[in-house]
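--- STAGE predict ---
source: upstream dedup step, 1 unique chain passed
mode: sequence only
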Amino acid sequence: MWPDPLSIESVEQNLKDAGCPDMFIRLFLARYATSTPDEQMQMLLEQRKKLLERLHDSQKHLDCMDYLCYHIQKQKTK
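--- STAGE serialize ---
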């Protein structure tokens, strides 16, 4: 039998697997039983936005690295 995906244990593990900071996990779990689904979604969407911003920052870093690699490789082939 599959575990309940909305049990406290499953939610906590999912938040950890998603890379959420410990402080967010503690805050979310503390409010989980008493908050509405809309409030829960708001918290999750705010955290998702932060994760997406980190992803975009990493993409910018990769773009800069690729730019430099491209120009070094171009110079090498001259």
